Prior knowledge:
The structure is a homotetramer.
Chain A: H1 2-14, H2 23-41, H3 46-50, H4 56-80, H5 84-98
Amino acid sequence: MEGLRQRLVDFAAARRWEPFHTPKNLAAALSVESGELLEIFQWLTPEQAAAVMSEPERAHRVRDEVADVLAYLVQFCTVVGVDPLEALAAKIERNELRFPVPDGSAAGGGDGEGGPDVNRDVGDQSV
Amino acid sequence: MEGLRQRLVDFAAARRWEPFHTPKNLAAALSVESGELLEIFQWLTPEQAAAVMSEPERAHRVRDEVADVLAYLVQFCTVVGVDPLEALAAKIERNELRFPVPDGSAAGGGDGEGGPDVNRDVGDQSV
Amino acid sequence: MEGLRQRLVDFAAARRWEPFHTPKNLAAALSVESGELLEIFQWLTPEQAAAVMSEPERAHRVRDEVADVLAYLVQFCTVVGVDPLEALAAKIERNELRFPVPDGSAAGGGDGEGGPDVNRDVGDQSV
Amino acid sequence: MEGLRQRLVDFAAARRWEPFHTPKNLAAALSVESGELLEIFQWLTPEQAAAVMSEPERAHRVRDEVADVLAYLVQFCTVVGVDPLEALAAKIERNELRFPVPDGSAAGGGDGEGGPDVNRDVGDQSV
Protein backbone atom coordinates (compact mmCIF):
# COMPACT_ATOMS: atom_id res chain seq x y z
CA MET A 1 0.00 0.00 0.00
CA GLU A 2 2.71 2.47 0.99
CA GLY A 3 4.63 1.74 -2.20
CA LEU A 4 1.56 2.44 -4.33
CA ARG A 5 0.80 5.56 -2.34
CA GLN A 6 4.27 6.88 -3.05
CA ARG A 7 3.96 6.10 -6.75
CA LEU A 8 0.72 8.07 -6.90
CA VAL A 9 2.39 11.01 -5.16
CA ASP A 10 5.31 10.91 -7.60
CA PHE A 11 3.01 10.49 -10.56
CA ALA A 12 1.04 13.63 -9.71
CA ALA A 13 4.16 15.61 -8.84
CA ALA A 14 5.89 14.76 -12.12
CA ARG A 15 2.86 16.04 -14.02
CA ARG A 16 2.42 19.08 -11.76
CA TRP A 17 -1.10 18.02 -10.86
CA GLU A 18 -0.86 18.79 -7.13
CA PRO A 19 -2.72 22.11 -7.42
CA PHE A 20 -5.77 20.17 -8.63
CA HIS A 21 -5.54 17.65 -5.85
CA THR A 22 -7.40 19.57 -3.19
CA PRO A 23 -9.42 17.58 -0.64
CA LYS A 24 -12.67 18.79 -2.18
CA ASN A 25 -11.68 17.92 -5.75
CA LEU A 26 -10.41 14.49 -4.73
CA ALA A 27 -13.58 13.76 -2.75
CA ALA A 28 -15.58 14.70 -5.85
CA ALA A 29 -13.40 12.51 -8.07
CA LEU A 30 -13.75 9.59 -5.67
CA SER A 31 -17.51 9.94 -5.81
CA VAL A 32 -17.49 10.18 -9.61
CA GLU A 33 -15.38 7.02 -9.97
CA SER A 34 -17.56 5.11 -7.51
CA GLY A 35 -20.45 6.03 -9.75
CA GLU A 36 -18.59 4.60 -12.74
CA LEU A 37 -18.14 1.33 -10.89
CA LEU A 38 -21.84 1.26 -10.07
CA GLU A 39 -22.66 2.04 -13.70
CA ILE A 40 -21.34 -1.39 -14.71
CA PHE A 41 -24.03 -3.00 -12.57
CA GLN A 42 -26.96 -0.67 -12.92
CA TRP A 43 -29.00 -2.69 -15.43
CA LEU A 44 -27.67 -6.14 -14.59
CA THR A 45 -29.87 -8.78 -13.04
CA PRO A 46 -28.55 -10.35 -9.83
CA GLU A 47 -27.41 -13.35 -11.90
CA GLN A 48 -25.55 -11.21 -14.42
CA ALA A 49 -24.00 -9.19 -11.62
CA ALA A 50 -22.80 -12.30 -9.84
CA ALA A 51 -21.10 -13.46 -13.05
CA VAL A 52 -19.58 -10.08 -13.87
CA MET A 53 -15.98 -11.32 -13.79
CA SER A 54 -16.61 -14.14 -16.24
CA GLU A 55 -17.20 -11.66 -19.02
CA PRO A 56 -13.74 -10.34 -20.01
CA GLU A 57 -14.63 -6.82 -21.03
CA ARG A 58 -16.73 -6.22 -17.92
CA ALA A 59 -14.05 -7.82 -15.76
CA HIS A 60 -11.52 -5.38 -17.15
CA ARG A 61 -13.81 -2.44 -16.46
CA VAL A 62 -14.38 -3.63 -12.89
CA ARG A 63 -10.64 -3.84 -12.21
CA ASP A 64 -10.13 -0.47 -13.83
CA GLU A 65 -12.78 1.28 -11.76
CA VAL A 66 -11.61 -0.41 -8.56
CA ALA A 67 -8.15 0.97 -9.29
CA ASP A 68 -9.56 4.47 -9.86
CA VAL A 69 -11.56 4.42 -6.64
CA LEU A 70 -8.59 3.21 -4.63
CA ALA A 71 -6.25 5.72 -6.28
CA TYR A 72 -8.46 8.67 -5.40
CA LEU A 73 -9.09 7.36 -1.90
CA VAL A 74 -5.35 7.05 -1.30
CA GLN A 75 -4.67 10.47 -2.78
CA PHE A 76 -7.44 12.03 -0.71
CA CYS A 77 -6.04 10.46 2.44
CA THR A 78 -2.57 11.73 1.57
CA VAL A 79 -3.67 15.35 1.26
CA VAL A 80 -5.75 15.34 4.45
CA GLY A 81 -3.22 13.27 6.41
CA VAL A 82 -5.43 10.30 7.24
CA ASP A 83 -4.17 6.72 7.38
CA PRO A 84 -7.00 4.76 5.74
CA LEU A 85 -6.05 1.40 7.26
CA GLU A 86 -5.95 2.92 10.73
CA ALA A 87 -9.30 4.62 10.13
CA LEU A 88 -10.82 1.31 9.04
CA ALA A 89 -9.40 -0.58 12.01
CA ALA A 90 -10.87 2.00 14.39
CA LYS A 91 -14.25 1.80 12.68
CA ILE A 92 -14.37 -1.98 12.82
CA GLU A 93 -13.71 -1.81 16.54
CA ARG A 94 -16.51 0.70 17.08
CA ASN A 95 -18.87 -1.41 15.02
CA GLU A 96 -18.10 -4.59 16.89
CA LEU A 97 -19.52 -2.81 19.94
CA ARG A 98 -22.45 -1.23 18.10
CA PHE A 99 -23.61 -4.36 16.30
CA PRO A 100 -23.17 -7.27 18.68
CA VAL A 101 -23.40 -10.68 17.12
CA PRO A 102 -26.98 -11.96 17.49
CA ASP A 103 -27.11 -15.17 19.45
CA GLY A 104 -30.37 -16.11 17.78
CA SER A 105 -30.48 -17.77 14.44
CA ALA A 106 -32.44 -15.48 12.15
CA ALA A 107 -30.45 -13.72 9.49
CA GLY A 108 -30.34 -9.98 9.52
CA GLY A 109 -31.62 -9.68 13.04
CA GLY A 110 -34.69 -11.71 12.38
CA ASP A 111 -36.89 -8.86 11.35
CA GLY A 112 -37.32 -10.03 7.83
CA GLU A 113 -35.64 -6.94 6.50
CA GLY A 114 -32.20 -7.55 7.71
CA GLY A 115 -29.19 -6.08 6.27
CA PRO A 116 -25.89 -4.72 7.02
CA ASP A 117 -23.72 -3.09 7.66
CA VAL A 118 -20.41 -2.61 9.28
CA ASN A 119 -20.58 0.83 7.75
CA ARG A 120 -24.07 1.60 8.87
CA ASP A 121 -24.34 5.06 10.26
CA VAL A 122 -26.30 5.81 13.36
CA GLY A 123 -28.58 8.05 11.36
CA ASP A 124 -29.21 5.49 8.67
CA GLN A 125 -32.81 4.40 8.90
CA SER A 126 -32.87 2.49 5.66
CA VAL A 127 -32.12 -0.90 7.14
CA MET B 1 -4.82 -4.85 4.51
CA GLU B 2 -5.30 -8.62 4.47
CA GLY B 3 -5.93 -8.64 8.23
CA LEU B 4 -8.62 -5.98 7.90
CA ARG B 5 -10.15 -7.76 4.93
CA GLN B 6 -10.49 -10.92 6.99
CA ARG B 7 -12.05 -9.04 9.88
CA LEU B 8 -14.65 -7.58 7.53
CA VAL B 9 -15.41 -11.06 6.19
CA ASP B 10 -15.80 -12.44 9.71
CA PHE B 11 -17.86 -9.46 10.80
CA ALA B 12 -20.39 -9.96 8.03
CA ALA B 13 -20.47 -13.73 8.46
CA ALA B 14 -21.12 -13.51 12.20
CA ARG B 15 -24.11 -11.26 11.53
CA ARG B 16 -25.30 -13.31 8.56
CA TRP B 17 -25.08 -10.34 6.25
CA GLU B 18 -23.50 -12.18 3.32
CA PRO B 19 -26.78 -12.47 1.38
CA PHE B 20 -26.92 -8.68 1.22
CA HIS B 21 -23.34 -8.39 0.08
CA THR B 22 -23.89 -8.88 -3.63
CA PRO B 23 -21.56 -7.08 -6.04
CA LYS B 24 -24.36 -4.75 -7.10
CA ASN B 25 -25.38 -3.84 -3.54
CA LEU B 26 -21.80 -3.27 -2.47
CA ALA B 27 -21.10 -1.09 -5.51
CA ALA B 28 -24.18 0.95 -4.59
CA ALA B 29 -23.07 1.21 -0.96
CA LEU B 30 -19.58 2.31 -2.01
CA SER B 31 -21.10 5.03 -4.15
CA VAL B 32 -23.40 6.14 -1.32
CA GLU B 33 -20.54 6.38 1.16
CA SER B 34 -18.37 8.30 -1.29
CA GLY B 35 -21.23 10.75 -1.52
CA GLU B 36 -21.24 11.09 2.26
CA LEU B 37 -17.54 11.94 2.20
CA LEU B 38 -18.17 14.55 -0.49
CA GLU B 39 -21.06 15.95 1.55
CA ILE B 40 -18.60 17.15 4.19
CA PHE B 41 -16.98 19.39 1.59
CA GLN B 42 -19.87 20.48 -0.56
CA TRP B 43 -20.35 23.98 0.87
CA LEU B 44 -16.83 24.58 2.11
CA THR B 45 -14.60 27.21 0.56
CA PRO B 46 -11.17 26.01 -0.61
CA GLU B 47 -9.69 27.46 2.59
CA GLN B 48 -12.18 25.69 4.85
CA ALA B 49 -11.70 22.46 2.92
CA ALA B 50 -7.92 22.66 3.27
CA ALA B 51 -8.32 23.05 7.04
CA VAL B 52 -10.92 20.29 7.40
CA MET B 53 -8.82 18.18 9.77
CA SER B 54 -8.22 21.02 12.21
CA GLU B 55 -11.88 21.02 13.17
CA PRO B 56 -12.36 17.96 15.44
CA GLU B 57 -15.91 17.05 14.54
CA ARG B 58 -15.27 17.32 10.80
CA ALA B 59 -12.00 15.43 11.19
CA HIS B 60 -13.87 12.59 12.86
CA ARG B 61 -16.45 12.52 10.08
CA VAL B 62 -13.71 12.43 7.45
CA ARG B 63 -12.02 9.44 9.11
CA ASP B 64 -15.35 7.74 9.52
CA GLU B 65 -16.35 8.13 5.88
CA VAL B 66 -12.89 7.11 4.65
CA ALA B 67 -13.29 3.92 6.69
CA ASP B 68 -16.73 3.28 5.19
CA VAL B 69 -15.50 3.77 1.63
CA LEU B 70 -12.52 1.50 2.17
CA ALA B 71 -14.64 -1.13 3.92
CA TYR B 72 -17.10 -1.35 1.04
CA LEU B 73 -14.32 -1.30 -1.54
CA VAL B 74 -12.58 -4.20 0.20
CA GLN B 75 -15.84 -6.12 0.58
CA PHE B 76 -16.74 -5.52 -3.06
CA CYS B 77 -13.32 -6.77 -4.14
CA THR B 78 -13.71 -9.84 -1.95
CA VAL B 79 -17.00 -10.90 -3.52
CA VAL B 80 -15.84 -10.34 -7.10
CA GLY B 81 -12.38 -11.79 -6.49
CA VAL B 82 -10.30 -8.75 -7.39
CA ASP B 83 -7.10 -7.78 -5.61
CA PRO B 84 -7.38 -3.99 -5.31
CA LEU B 85 -3.66 -3.38 -4.82
CA GLU B 86 -2.86 -5.43 -7.90
CA ALA B 87 -5.52 -3.59 -9.89
CA LEU B 88 -4.08 -0.26 -8.82
CA ALA B 89 -0.50 -1.27 -9.66
CA ALA B 90 -1.62 -2.35 -13.14
CA LYS B 91 -3.47 0.90 -13.68
CA ILE B 92 -0.52 3.05 -12.61
CA GLU B 93 1.63 1.21 -15.13
CA ARG B 94 -0.87 1.81 -17.92
CA ASN B 95 -1.14 5.47 -16.98
CA GLU B 96 2.60 6.00 -16.93
CA LEU B 97 2.49 5.12 -20.62
CA ARG B 98 -0.65 7.10 -21.37
CA PHE B 99 0.39 10.29 -19.63
CA PRO B 100 4.09 10.77 -20.26
CA VAL B 101 5.79 13.34 -18.08
CA PRO B 102 5.87 16.64 -19.95
CA ASP B 103 9.41 17.82 -20.47
CA GLY B 104 8.25 21.42 -20.68
CA SER B 105 7.64 23.49 -17.62
CA ALA B 106 4.02 24.57 -17.74
CA ALA B 107 1.75 22.95 -15.20
CA GLY B 108 -1.09 20.84 -16.48
CA GLY B 109 0.32 20.74 -19.96
CA GLY B 110 0.46 24.48 -20.25
CA ASP B 111 -3.00 24.91 -21.64
CA GLY B 112 -4.26 26.87 -18.69
CA GLU B 113 -6.80 24.20 -17.94
CA GLY B 114 -4.56 21.49 -16.88
CA GLY B 115 -5.53 18.86 -14.61
CA PRO B 116 -5.22 15.32 -13.80
CA ASP B 117 -5.43 12.53 -13.61
CA VAL B 118 -3.90 9.17 -13.13
CA ASN B 119 -7.46 7.92 -13.20
CA ARG B 120 -8.45 9.81 -16.27
CA ASP B 121 -10.37 7.66 -18.65
CA VAL B 122 -9.72 7.76 -22.33
CA GLY B 123 -13.24 8.97 -22.89
CA ASP B 124 -13.02 11.73 -20.34
CA GLN B 125 -13.04 15.01 -22.14
CA SER B 126 -13.52 17.17 -19.11
CA VAL B 127 -9.89 17.93 -18.55
CA MET C 1 -42.05 24.27 -12.41
CA GLU C 2 -41.38 27.97 -12.97
CA GLY C 3 -43.23 28.86 -9.76
CA LEU C 4 -41.13 26.41 -7.76
CA ARG C 5 -37.96 27.62 -9.42
CA GLN C 6 -38.75 31.18 -8.38
CA ARG C 7 -39.48 30.09 -4.80
CA LEU C 8 -36.10 28.37 -4.62
CA VAL C 9 -34.38 31.50 -5.92
CA ASP C 10 -36.18 33.67 -3.35
CA PHE C 11 -35.49 31.17 -0.58
CA ALA C 12 -31.74 31.23 -1.20
CA ALA C 13 -31.66 35.01 -1.66
CA ALA C 14 -33.51 35.66 1.61
CA ARG C 15 -30.96 33.57 3.46
CA ARG C 16 -28.01 35.02 1.54
CA TRP C 17 -26.97 31.61 0.32
CA GLU C 18 -26.22 32.60 -3.27
CA PRO C 19 -22.43 32.71 -2.74
CA PHE C 20 -22.52 29.01 -1.93
CA HIS C 21 -24.62 28.19 -4.96
CA THR C 22 -21.83 27.90 -7.49
CA PRO C 23 -22.28 25.44 -10.36
CA LYS C 24 -19.62 23.14 -8.90
CA ASN C 25 -21.11 23.14 -5.40
CA LEU C 26 -24.62 22.54 -6.70
CA ALA C 27 -23.43 19.68 -8.93
CA ALA C 28 -21.77 18.14 -5.88
CA ALA C 29 -24.91 18.60 -3.79
CA LEU C 30 -27.05 17.03 -6.51
CA SER C 31 -24.76 14.03 -6.57
CA VAL C 32 -24.81 13.75 -2.77
CA GLU C 33 -28.62 13.85 -2.65
CA SER C 34 -28.92 11.27 -5.43
CA GLY C 35 -26.74 9.06 -3.27
CA GLU C 36 -29.13 9.56 -0.37
CA LEU C 37 -32.02 8.44 -2.53
CA LEU C 38 -30.07 5.36 -3.58
CA GLU C 39 -29.21 4.66 0.06
CA ILE C 40 -32.87 3.88 0.76
CA PHE C 41 -32.67 1.01 -1.73
CA GLN C 42 -29.14 -0.31 -1.29
CA TRP C 43 -29.95 -3.35 0.85
CA LEU C 44 -33.53 -3.93 -0.30
CA THR C 45 -34.49 -6.99 -2.26
CA PRO C 46 -36.33 -6.35 -5.52
CA GLU C 47 -39.59 -7.18 -3.74
CA GLN C 48 -38.91 -4.76 -0.88
CA ALA C 49 -37.84 -2.10 -3.33
CA ALA C 50 -41.01 -2.50 -5.39
CA ALA C 51 -43.08 -2.02 -2.23
CA VAL C 52 -41.10 0.93 -0.95
CA MET C 53 -44.03 3.34 -0.95
CA SER C 54 -46.25 1.06 1.12
CA GLU C 55 -44.00 1.57 4.14
CA PRO C 56 -44.81 5.08 5.45
CA GLU C 57 -41.42 6.04 6.81
CA ARG C 58 -39.60 4.92 3.67
CA ALA C 59 -42.23 6.58 1.51
CA HIS C 60 -41.62 9.85 3.30
CA ARG C 61 -37.87 9.51 2.82
CA VAL C 62 -38.33 8.81 -0.89
CA ARG C 63 -40.45 11.93 -1.37
CA ASP C 64 -37.98 13.95 0.66
CA GLU C 65 -34.97 12.86 -1.36
CA VAL C 66 -36.80 13.31 -4.65
CA ALA C 67 -37.51 16.87 -3.57
CA ASP C 68 -33.85 17.45 -2.70
CA VAL C 69 -32.62 16.10 -6.02
CA LEU C 70 -35.11 18.18 -7.97
CA ALA C 71 -34.33 21.29 -5.90
CA TYR C 72 -30.61 21.06 -6.58
CA LEU C 73 -31.16 20.23 -10.24
CA VAL C 74 -33.37 23.30 -10.65
CA GLN C 75 -30.93 25.50 -8.74
CA PHE C 76 -28.01 24.19 -10.79
CA CYS C 77 -29.89 24.91 -14.01
CA THR C 78 -30.72 28.41 -12.81
CA VAL C 79 -27.11 29.35 -12.15
CA VAL C 80 -25.81 27.93 -15.44
CA GLY C 81 -28.77 29.20 -17.47
CA VAL C 82 -30.05 25.88 -18.76
CA ASP C 83 -33.73 25.08 -19.23
CA PRO C 84 -33.99 21.48 -17.98
CA LEU C 85 -37.23 20.69 -19.82
CA GLU C 86 -35.77 21.97 -23.08
CA ALA C 87 -32.60 19.95 -22.49
CA LEU C 88 -34.65 16.83 -21.87
CA ALA C 89 -36.82 17.36 -24.95
CA ALA C 90 -33.70 17.73 -27.10
CA LYS C 91 -32.17 14.58 -25.64
CA ILE C 92 -35.31 12.51 -26.20
CA GLU C 93 -35.27 13.58 -29.84
CA ARG C 94 -31.62 12.59 -30.25
CA ASN C 95 -32.29 9.26 -28.58
CA GLU C 96 -35.27 8.46 -30.75
CA LEU C 97 -32.80 8.53 -33.65
CA ARG C 98 -30.04 6.68 -31.81
CA PHE C 99 -32.16 3.87 -30.44
CA PRO C 100 -34.69 2.98 -33.11
CA VAL C 101 -37.56 0.81 -31.98
CA PRO C 102 -36.69 -2.80 -32.73
CA ASP C 103 -39.16 -4.34 -35.10
CA GLY C 104 -38.37 -7.80 -33.74
CA SER C 105 -39.96 -9.14 -30.65
CA ALA C 106 -37.15 -9.82 -28.22
CA ALA C 107 -36.88 -7.50 -25.28
CA GLY C 108 -33.79 -5.37 -24.97
CA GLY C 109 -32.76 -5.93 -28.55
CA GLY C 110 -32.86 -9.67 -28.32
CA ASP C 111 -29.38 -10.18 -27.02
CA GLY C 112 -30.48 -11.56 -23.71
CA GLU C 113 -28.82 -8.75 -21.87
CA GLY C 114 -31.00 -5.98 -22.92
CA GLY C 115 -31.41 -2.86 -21.09
CA PRO C 116 -31.87 0.73 -21.44
CA ASP C 117 -31.56 3.50 -21.76
CA VAL C 118 -32.79 6.73 -23.11
CA ASN C 119 -29.87 8.22 -21.24
CA ARG C 120 -27.32 5.77 -22.48
CA ASP C 121 -24.15 7.42 -23.53
CA VAL C 122 -22.35 6.44 -26.67
CA GLY C 123 -19.37 5.37 -24.62
CA ASP C 124 -21.40 3.26 -22.23
CA GLN C 125 -20.59 -0.34 -22.83
CA SER C 126 -22.33 -1.70 -19.79
CA VAL C 127 -25.57 -2.54 -21.50
CA MET D 1 -43.34 18.17 -17.76
CA GLU D 2 -46.26 15.78 -18.16
CA GLY D 3 -45.71 15.64 -21.92
CA LEU D 4 -42.04 14.75 -21.45
CA ARG D 5 -42.92 12.19 -18.79
CA GLN D 6 -45.30 10.49 -21.21
CA ARG D 7 -42.67 10.48 -23.96
CA LEU D 8 -40.22 8.77 -21.61
CA VAL D 9 -42.84 6.17 -20.70
CA ASP D 10 -43.57 5.50 -24.37
CA PHE D 11 -39.89 5.44 -25.25
CA ALA D 12 -39.13 2.73 -22.68
CA ALA D 13 -42.25 0.75 -23.56
CA ALA D 14 -41.49 0.73 -27.28
CA ARG D 15 -38.03 -0.70 -26.53
CA ARG D 16 -39.35 -3.12 -23.89
CA TRP D 17 -37.10 -1.63 -21.26
CA GLU D 18 -39.69 -1.56 -18.46
CA PRO D 19 -38.33 -4.71 -16.76
CA PHE D 20 -35.06 -2.87 -16.18
CA HIS D 21 -36.78 0.18 -14.81
CA THR D 22 -37.15 -0.96 -11.22
CA PRO D 23 -37.00 1.69 -8.49
CA LYS D 24 -33.61 0.42 -7.35
CA ASN D 25 -32.08 0.42 -10.83
CA LEU D 26 -33.44 3.87 -11.62
CA ALA D 27 -32.15 5.27 -8.31
CA ALA D 28 -28.73 3.82 -9.17
CA ALA D 29 -28.87 5.29 -12.68
CA LEU D 30 -29.88 8.70 -11.31
CA SER D 31 -26.89 8.61 -8.99
CA VAL D 32 -24.55 7.56 -11.80
CA GLU D 33 -25.73 10.37 -14.07
CA SER D 34 -25.41 12.94 -11.29
CA GLY D 35 -21.83 11.79 -10.96
CA GLU D 36 -21.31 12.37 -14.67
CA LEU D 37 -22.56 15.92 -14.29
CA LEU D 38 -20.19 16.46 -11.38
CA GLU D 39 -17.33 14.99 -13.42
CA ILE D 40 -17.48 17.99 -15.76
CA PHE D 41 -16.61 20.24 -12.82
CA GLN D 42 -14.26 18.11 -10.76
CA TRP D 43 -10.96 19.71 -11.81
CA LEU D 44 -12.27 23.14 -12.76
CA THR D 45 -11.33 26.22 -10.80
CA PRO D 46 -14.24 28.35 -9.57
CA GLU D 47 -13.60 30.73 -12.47
CA GLN D 48 -13.63 27.95 -15.06
CA ALA D 49 -16.74 26.46 -13.48
CA ALA D 50 -18.56 29.78 -13.57
CA ALA D 51 -17.78 30.07 -17.30
CA VAL D 52 -18.70 26.50 -18.12
CA MET D 53 -21.44 27.43 -20.57
CA SER D 54 -19.21 29.70 -22.65
CA GLU D 55 -17.20 26.71 -23.80
CA PRO D 56 -19.39 24.95 -26.42
CA GLU D 57 -18.31 21.38 -25.85
CA ARG D 58 -18.68 21.63 -22.08
CA ALA D 59 -21.97 23.45 -22.47
CA HIS D 60 -23.27 20.59 -24.57
CA ARG D 61 -22.15 18.05 -21.98
CA VAL D 62 -23.85 20.02 -19.21
CA ARG D 63 -27.15 20.09 -21.08
CA ASP D 64 -26.80 16.42 -21.89
CA GLU D 65 -26.17 15.37 -18.29
CA VAL D 66 -28.95 17.62 -16.98
CA ALA D 67 -31.28 15.83 -19.39
CA ASP D 68 -30.10 12.43 -18.17
CA VAL D 69 -30.56 13.33 -14.51
CA LEU D 70 -34.03 14.73 -15.14
CA ALA D 71 -35.01 11.74 -17.30
CA TYR D 72 -34.08 9.24 -14.60
CA LEU D 73 -35.68 11.33 -11.88
CA VAL D 74 -38.93 11.47 -13.83
CA GLN D 75 -38.80 7.76 -14.62
CA PHE D 76 -38.05 6.91 -10.99
CA CYS D 77 -41.00 9.03 -9.86
CA THR D 78 -43.24 7.33 -12.39
CA VAL D 79 -42.49 3.83 -11.16
CA VAL D 80 -42.87 4.71 -7.47
CA GLY D 81 -45.89 6.94 -8.03
CA VAL D 82 -44.47 10.19 -6.68
CA ASP D 83 -45.24 13.60 -8.15
CA PRO D 84 -41.85 15.37 -8.04
CA LEU D 85 -43.29 18.89 -8.23
CA GLU D 86 -45.66 18.16 -5.36
CA ALA D 87 -42.80 16.65 -3.34
CA LEU D 88 -40.70 19.74 -3.94
CA ALA D 89 -43.51 22.12 -3.01
CA ALA D 90 -44.05 20.24 0.26
CA LYS D 91 -40.35 20.33 1.05
CA ILE D 92 -40.05 24.06 0.39
CA GLU D 93 -42.91 24.64 2.80
CA ARG D 94 -41.26 22.56 5.50
CA ASN D 95 -37.97 24.35 4.97
CA GLU D 96 -39.51 27.79 5.20
CA LEU D 97 -40.46 26.85 8.74
CA ARG D 98 -37.15 25.16 9.55
CA PHE D 99 -34.88 27.88 8.23
CA PRO D 100 -36.50 31.19 9.10
CA VAL D 101 -35.08 34.21 7.32
CA PRO D 102 -32.47 35.82 9.56
CA ASP D 103 -33.38 39.40 10.36
CA GLY D 104 -29.74 40.23 11.03
CA SER D 105 -27.39 41.08 8.26
CA ALA D 106 -24.67 38.45 8.27
CA ALA D 107 -24.71 36.04 5.41
CA GLY D 108 -25.22 32.38 6.15
CA GLY D 109 -26.36 32.99 9.69
CA GLY D 110 -23.39 35.04 10.64
CA ASP D 111 -21.24 32.21 11.82
CA GLY D 112 -18.62 32.69 9.18
CA GLU D 113 -19.30 29.28 7.74
CA GLY D 114 -22.72 29.87 6.47
CA GLY D 115 -24.23 27.88 3.83
CA PRO D 116 -27.32 26.45 2.63
CA ASP D 117 -29.55 24.78 2.11
CA VAL D 118 -33.14 24.35 1.33
CA ASN D 119 -32.30 20.71 1.09
CA ARG D 120 -30.32 20.54 4.26
CA ASP D 121 -31.24 17.53 6.30
CA VAL D 122 -31.67 17.71 10.02
CA GLY D 123 -28.81 15.33 10.44
CA ASP D 124 -26.48 17.22 8.19
CA GLN D 125 -23.76 18.70 10.33
CA SER D 126 -21.54 19.77 7.49
CA VAL D 127 -22.85 23.29 7.26
